[in-house]
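Entry 14. Ran structure prediction on the chain below.
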Amino acid sequence: MSQQRLSYHVVARTSDRDVSSATIKETMISFDSSAGQSAVLPGPADLLTLAFAACVLKNVERFSRMLPFRYAGASIEVTSERQAAPPRIIQIRYVLRLQTDEPSQRVDLLHRNIRKFGTIYNTLASTCDVDGEIVAEAPIDLGIG
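Output, structure tokens:
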């Protein structure tokens, strides 16, 4: 029995010498394609870092349903480091913040699942050093409802 494979498709093109855009599903994203670094537009390394962050947040939602795991909100801060020669990302560090009242053992279980089953997480972890932590914070009770 063969494993299910998913496919992803992006169309990208330059719009001028320093700016390009990509169409992903029904969304257009502009990005820096200059020889230097734009102060405004994200470049390829920024987009790779974003993909990592999106993967982690997507898996928080995915595993919150599977485990189940209660949380009121999630945010992540990711820093990637690039070496010059040969050019490559060598390190990714993150802090995932969750508003949850789950006990620490359940937070650790969620983190293990994110590390084990995250597609972008695993892809990048196989090529560079990836390390991070989850900070569990008590949910804010707004007294609504």
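The beta strands are 11-14, 19-24, 27-32, 73-83, 88-99, 129-137. Will compare against last week's run tomorrow.
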